[in-house]
Amino acid sequence: MAASGGSDGAPKGRDLPQPSRSRCRINSTLGTKLQNAKRISTEHLEVITDNFSPERVIGRGGYGTVYKGVNSDGKYVAVKVLHKNTTGTDNGEFKHEFESLMSLKHRNIIQFVGFCYETRHKPVLQDGETIFAEDIYKALCFEYMQNGNLKEHITGMGRG
């Protein structure tokens, strides 16, 4: 009996496992959503949050601070600014949350509005020399949930 695959024993062409049709549809749908994701500039986020004013803070967590923003059309948005990390070690968490939000759509789930992922260079003095350090801004924007947050609704500890 002949072995399947090429002369080196590795699977070839038709011997490779094929992705299921439903997985292909999911990946295709997610790919389309990713291409159409709304990019929001840091400048815009600064405007709608009054330059990330402490008075606009509506929550804090392990990955960032959430601000209440007001768009020019008067609609409120929640802006989750991820803690700055110049080493890039939290890119996995940002990517996971971004992809998860892009794949969700349900009337009982707050909708994803857009994202910000920008790198700015700023001059800093290091060892007596001017260098241009990268300052990475990452934020996720959602519909704003009136009357508190989900935890408050679940535990019955609403704000009033």
TrEMBL record:
Keywords: ATP-binding, Nucleotide-binding. Pfam families: Pkinase. Residues 52-160 form the Protein kinase domain. ATP binds at residue 80. The keyword ATP-binding applies. This is Protein kinase domain-containing protein. GO terms for molecular function: ATP binding; protein kinase activity.
